[in-house]
Amino acid sequence: MKKSVASIRDENIEFQWTAAGFRMTFLFQEPEPHHWVVQLPREPIEEASGRLIDHLKRDSLQLAALGEHGGEAISDLLRMPYAEEREPQRPLSAMVSQSDCPCGQIGCNHIQEALKTAEGSWRAASAIDRLAWLGWTAESLLDAVLDCWSSSLGGKDAEAELKRFAARLDTPAYRSKEGEANLAEWLAEMAHNGHLHQPGPELHDVEVSLTPLRLASQAPVVQPWIQLLPGVPGVAEGLSLVIEQASRNAERLAKPLQASKS
Fold this sequence. Notes:
Blueprint: E1 6-9, E2 13-18, E3 21-28, E4 34-39, H1 43-58, H2 60-69, H3 92-98, H4 109-124, H5 127-133, H6 138-153, H7 158-169, H8 172-175, H9 180-193, H10 219-228, H11 235-261
Antiparallel strand pairs: 1-2, 2-3, 3-4
């Protein structure tokens, strides 16, 4: 996982967010020019990054916001890795013991100052910088969560399954069935051309008419319903259509009965 580097330097200190963790350099001029480098551990950064992925795996709305608006959309999830109150599983003493300072003193003031500087820089940083310090861009984080979803499903390769299904349709047994050979050919052709998102030939069998239907007058019958539904547009037309269609169905069903009696 590629980590970005953010570096800030003033007269006495220089700090960086790196792949190895937070790094702080103390610059001294007396008695002669020298420096000390304090290295905070990278594990809290990795843990914060892992918790971020776990949260987004469970919250599809925030994941969608990340994809649409970038890192600013999840700024509330970008927690400071080295803050004691936000790391209940990793107390400050553990962070201090895993930090490295050349002065050789356990829990020295240099480490304490590095921790305070890390938290201060985190608070002042933008959401995009915080995301980068955790090792992500908005795009790479989104891809990582989607990859986790995909791997957790354990599904088969969709393209291979489609090719297998199309090949199964293109057999003598399926060819003998009306229309099945055409379906196999259509699937194979669409898979080859990458156009499976296009509608099938059955779409063209659907006819949509925008011409208003001419209905027999049902005014006396539907008038009570119109009064029960004041202000609802199309009540008369809709009820008339239902009544007319029901009458046609009744006539169709009654014809065999009338023929048997005669």
